[in-house]
Amino acid sequence: MKHQIRTTMRPDQVVEVTDQEYEDLDRQGLVAAVEQPAPPDPAKPAARGRTTQAAQPPKSADKPGDTAAQHSKE
Fold first, then answer.
1. Do 19 and 1 meet the contact criterion of CB atoms below 8 Å apart?
2. Distance (Å, rounded) from C-alpha 29 to C-alpha 32?
3. pLDDT digit string, tens, across residues 24-54
């Protein structure tokens, strides 16, 4: 697991560290603050690793820039 922290040496900079690094820095008293990741936006659905139909080019386009909607009107 990754942690986003601010150290006492550079409190103006957020650093991403592993569990081991975090425990070591915390043991030495060098962790100034732990940054909480922003909560996911409830309005946006979470990504599930699948592409949407809008991201794929139309299958019936003959020329670049043509869309399936333009072909259906002709």
1. yes
2. 8
3. 999 999 999 999 765 556 676 665 655 555 5
What pTM was computed for the model?
0.48
Residue 6 to residue 12: CA distance in whole angstroms: 7
DSSP one-letter code for 39: P
Report the C-alpha gap between 34 and 69 in whole angstroms. 51
SS3 label, residue 62: coil
Domain definitions of the chain by residue range: 1-36
Token duo for residue 7 = 């150290």
Cα 58 from Cα 6, distance rounded (Å): 47
